[in-house]
Amino acid sequence: MDILATTKAVASVSLLDADRDPEGFSQELGRSFERYGFAIVADHGIPADLIHRAEEKAKAFFALPEEVKRAYHQRGGGGARGYTPFGIETAKGAVNYDLKEFWHVARELPPGHKYESSMPPNVWPEEVESFKATFLELFAAFDRTGAKLLEAIARYLDLAPDYFVDTVRDGNSILRLLHYPPIPGDGPNVRAGAHEDINTITLLLGAEEAGLQLLDRDGDWVPVTPKPGELAVNIGDMLQRLTNNVMRSTTHRVVNPPRERRGISRYSMPFFLHFRSDFLIETLPNCITADRPNLYPDPITADEYLQERLREIKLA
After folding, report:
1. For the chain, first and last CA: distance in Å?
2. Which residue range forms the structural domain that includes residue 225?
3. DSSP state, 213?
4. How many CA atoms lie less than 13 Å away from 273 in the CB half-sphere?
């Protein structure tokens, strides 16, 4: 039986402190990532009006007829761009699919870019006005906020503050627009089965609707409950691997709501910040000690690792 540990809580920090007290901010953030793999970030710099516009555009798209949405499903694309219908994505090792549909926005690359073979162009719906402009603006805002968080992580790991700048330059990051539809009845499926994120770090807007939980190292499920407008930020498997498990990529899930709220849709917008495709994920020397031997002796590029994991969750 699951234990819900309501007395445990991840750190809640203000990104304003990244400039006011860089060392103190990095220590508080880093300790929460090392203990829980998660932190809540306020004052993140993403404008409230932009968030509101993006939420309205996402809701407008998901309200379109099913046949219109499915026209934007890129078959054989691993869900990397455009629309992924309800009932496809399945958590690693799970039997039942997740109760969600989503849309992916990626980085726009100029023609002839060296990463275009691993980063196909975006797809844009014609039916929702200003969809492209809104989500490219939000993508850029997430990118800026993610860079500040990575700078703090670098400080915590005793790296140069700009260590991650090159590792994520033109990275294969993804902005996901998520819709969890109303749940018609009881069944084995959940909104998002227990899983870990593949990428470097994830920045999530929209987690204030109850349901997001992390599995801590004591085996307890801990609710992640940001206030409206705050970000829930978590470590992904790529950063866990790079840091030899110093930074924890924590199992998390989105559970189904109480029966009285099952008729209500849930929306969120996670930003999966990725390394650049050809970045070699090789254990950082200062994360290897006598007490913490190298758990990942075989380096792997970010794109190779991504493709391996996408196959596991049935998106490739």
Report:
1. 33
2. 12-312
3. E
4. 26
- Residues 6 or more apart from 84 whose CB is under 8 A from it? 73, 101, 102, 103, 104, 315
pLDDT digits (tens, 9 = 90+) for 106-127: 999 999 999 999 899 999 999 9
Cβ contact 157:242 at 8 Å: no
User: pLDDT of 17-46, one tens digit each?
Assistant: 999 999 999 999 999 999 999 999 999 999
Do the Cβ atoms of 139 and 229 come closer than 8 Å?
no
Asked if residue 152 lies in contact with residue 22, where contact means CB atoms within 8 angstroms, the answer is yes
Number of domains making up the chain? 1
What is the phi/psi pair of residue 225, to 5°?
A: -130, 70
Confidence grade of residue 275 (pLDDT, cut at 50, 70, 90): very high
Give the percent of the chain with pLDDT over 70: 87
Q: Domain containing 206 — which CATH number?
A: 2.60.120.330
**Nearest CA-CA partner of 201 in 269, 249, 161:** 249
Centroid of chain to Cα 96: 21
Length of the chain: 316
C-alpha span between 6 and 221 (Å, rounded): 8
Predicted confidence (pLDDT) at residue 187 exceeds the cutoff of 80: no
Taking alpha carbons only, the member of 231, 224, 227 closest to residue 148 is 231
Assigned domain for 191 exists: yes
Given a cut of 90, whether residue 143 has pLDDT beyond it is yes
Cα(53)–Cα(65) distance, integer angstroms: 21
Q: Which of 189, 175, 41 is nearest to 108 (CA)?
A: 175
